[in-house]
Amino acid sequence: MTLEPRVLQPSEWDDWYGALLSAFASEDSSQEREVYRSLTEVERSIGVWDEGRPVATAGLFSFRMAVPGGAVVPTAGVTMVSVAPTHRRRGLLRTMMRRQLDDLRAAGEEPLAVLTASEPAIYGRFGYGLATHSLSARIDTSRVALQLPAPPAAEADGLRLRQSDEAASLLAECEAVYAQVVSRRPGMLQRRPGWEREPLLDPERNREGASPLRCVVALRDGEPVAYARYAVKMCWSRTDAADGEVRLRELEALDPAGYAALWRFLWGIDLTTTIVADNRPVDDPWQHLVSDPRRCGTAVGDSLYLRPVDVGAALAARCYATPVEIVLEVEDTFCPWNTGRWRLSGDEKGAVCEPTRDAADLSLAVRELGSAYLGGTSLTALAGAGLVREQRPGSGALRAAAAAFANDVQPWLPHGF
Questions:
Q1: Does 334 qualify as catalytic in the annotation?
Q2: Which of 61, 128, 405, 417 is catalytic?
Q3: pLDDT digits (tens, 9 = 90+) for 192-220
Q4: Where are the beta strands (DSSP E) in 71-213?
Q5: Of these residues, 123, 128, 230, 259, which one is catalytic?
Q6: Does 417 qualify as catalytic in the annotation?
C-alpha cells in the first residue's frame, strides 16, 4: 500500500512529535515540548501514517533570513524531519521533500529553503548546499591572554554591565540587541514572536554538571549594546585547584566596546580556566585578540544548508559586492522549474534575475548555487573542485561572479531550529 504524506492536524501533534523523538532516540523536557508545540506551524507540517501511527514527519517554519546587502528575505525553515526505523528505504523522505518544495513553489512566497542536517549526506540530492559554517573553541584562559585595544572614550564612556543568574530576567535587553544585529550578518534569522524562548531552553540533561543558563548585558546610557548567555561548570584538580569552565551559549554586540567588555567579563570569571564556545561565526573577532591561538582549540563544522526554491527570485533578493552582469546555466534535477539559463544583473543596491536564451558564462548545479548564495563559499573554490564551470575559459566571468557573490563578513546561523 502506498504511504502518502498529509497535513498534520492539531490533535495529532503529540503523537507526531513523539514519532520524531523516537526516530532520534531522544527525549524532551516539559519546557521543550511546550515551546516546540507553540512554535510548530501545524498547517505547514506533514506526516506519513501507517495503520494510524505516524511513521514519518516534516515541517516548515516561516522565517525571515538576512542575506548579503542587509535585506531579510522570507525563507522556509525545514525542520522536524524523521522517518521511523521500520519504514526507512521506502522513499518516504523523498516524498516529503517533494511535497514541501512543490508547496513552496505553488505559494510563491519564499524563494529560499534552509535546514540543518543530522546527516549532511542526505540533503545534497534534494539540492541543499552547505552555506554556512560554525566555529567551536576551547580556550585555555589560564595561559592565553586577552589583548584588548583601548576603546575610544566615546565608545567606552558610560558602559556598564548587568548580570543575572536567571537568563530570562534580561530577555528584553538581549532581544533588543539581537534585533539590531540580524541584518549585519547573512544567515541570521529574525526572531518572530515566540522564538525568543528557544535560546533560553536549558534542559538539565544537557548541562553535564554546569549551572543553569546565566546572562550578562552591557549597557550604555541605560540602553543595551551587548549581551552574553553562558553557564559555569565548576571543576577541581586533584590538589583542589580551581579548574572550571565557562560555557558560552550566545554573545551579540552592537559595537567593539560592548563586544570587548563581555569577553573581558567571561575571561575573568573566578575559579575558571577555560571558555568553551560551540557555535560562533567563523570570523569571530576574538580570534584577533588572543595571545596564543594554538591554545584556543578551534574547529570548524558545517551548519546551515540552503537551496533556492525559485532561482530568479532568490538571486534578485540579495545585493552584490561588485557590479555583475552574467548568465548562469543552472541544473536542478529535483526542481526542474529552475533548470535553464538565468541572466543576473546586480550591484550593491539590488539585482534583477530573469530567464534568458543567451549563451551561458558559468554553469553549476543548484546545490552549488545554494552554497555560494550567502557569500560564505567562494565560486572560485567550487570551480577548483570542478563544480562550477566557466564556459569560455579565460573570459573573466568566474572571477567577476566570485567577487560579486562575496560578502564582507562570513554568514552564520546563531541557533538551530
A1: no
A2: 417
A3: 999 999 999 999 999 999 999 999 999 99
A4: 72-83, 112-116, 129-130, 133-140, 159-164
A5: 123
A6: yes
